[in-house]
Amino acid sequence: MKVAFIGLGVMGYPMAGHVKAAGMDICVFNRTPEKAEKWCEEFGGIWANTPARAAEGCDIVLVCVGNDDDVRQVVLGKDGVLAGMKEGAILVDHTTASASLARELDEEARNLGKRFLDAPVSGGQAGAENGALTVMIGGDQSDYEAARPVIDVYSKFNKLLGPAGNGQLAKAANQICIAGVVEGLAEAINFAIKAGLNGEDLIETISKGAAGSWQMENRYQTMLNDEYEFGFAVDWMRKDLGIALEEAQRNGADMPLVKMVDDFYAEVQSKGGGRLDTSSLLTRYTRN
Ligand code: NAP
Predict the structure, then answer these.
(1) Is pLDDT above 80 for 288?
(2) CATH number among 3.40.109.10, 3.40.50.300, 3.40.50.720, 3.40.30.10, domain 2-163
(3) 3-class DSSP assignment, residue 173
(4) What is the per-residue pLDDT across 220-232, written as a single tens digit (0 to 9) for each?
């Protein structure tokens, strides 16, 4: 299997590392070439100076960049991966982007005799480093089956959820759940502080009951320490909630909670907290 990986960020860097460690032939591209050089020193693959060159001759091309515009920049045009990919090769986009972009790229790829899967991920930096991501996939069954041996190397669970775009719609639902859970956790911790409870004892106890969650287990300690540099950034969350809200406008879903939490994140951003992790919702209550 010959693979290309485009975008060696927090997520892409370790994901590409798992592909190499699984013994696959890999060529990487990163906009800032120093990161690609560093990756090659660490893992031993090769790097190319354009996405198109990285994709040449590959069976599978994996992309994990920032947003819709970034995906367009590395996929389309003369230096984009679609220009370099051979016929029949599969483009797998792991970026969290819109479902409409996924459908557009699916059509574009198909018109060129190439194939496309939208495959956003959940599980954060730790999930990427441990090869334990959850991957939500949209596209054709046969393309999913062909790409699965690669996706399996960095995921603990992956599933085809319907046609192109459905992976991104599932990721939007994932982010809707997280928004509510994190705000609930922030309010509970603030309540506990004000009530004079011991935060450690509280979480040790209630995490064993129905209130327990991934956010509670992985973020309560840093929240209690007033530290917010441990994961998914507010800027990224606002991008994702924007995608969910735009989709909801189209499908008529009412999302009062998402609108409220998105406003709260906007407030954190306006105070310079765009790169803080999403649990920084607590600062709205504790840092006055
Ligand atoms: P990141 O650390 O900021 O990395 C972004 C990567 O994309 C970098 O390699 C960057 O290149 C590249 N890139 C961005 N815009 C580009 C452009 N226009 N042209 C070429 N390359 C471009 O981001 P990340 O945390 O890995 O997240 C990547 C995606 O995964 C996002 O869609 C995010 O929402 C999603 N995600 C992230 C997490 C998380 O916990 N971080 C969890 C789940 C999903 P440079 O190195 O040159 O900047």
Answers:
(1) no
(2) 3.40.50.720
(3) helix
(4) 999 999 999 987 9
Question: Under a CB-based contact definition with an 8 Å cutoff, are residues 238 and 175 in contact?
Answer: no
Q: Which residues line ligand 1 (CB under 6 A)?
A: 7-12, 30-32, 35, 64-66, 70, 73-74, 95-96, 121-122, 124-125, 231-232, 236
- Which spans in 58-165 are helix H? 68-75, 81-84, 99-111, 124-129, 141-151
Domain(s) labelled CATH 3.40.50.720 in the chain stretch across 2-163
Q: Is the pTM of this model over 0.90?
A: yes
**Could you tell me what percent of the chain has a pLDDT over 90?**
97
Q: 169-286, what's its fold?
A: N-(1-d-carboxylethyl)-l-norvaline Dehydrogenase; domain 2 (1.10.1040)
Rounded alpha-carbon distances, angstroms, from residue 71 to 65, 93, 94, 267? 6, 8, 10, 27
Nearest protein Cα to ligand 1, atom 8: 9
pLDDT above 80 (res 91): yes
Interval 21-31 mean pLDDT: 98
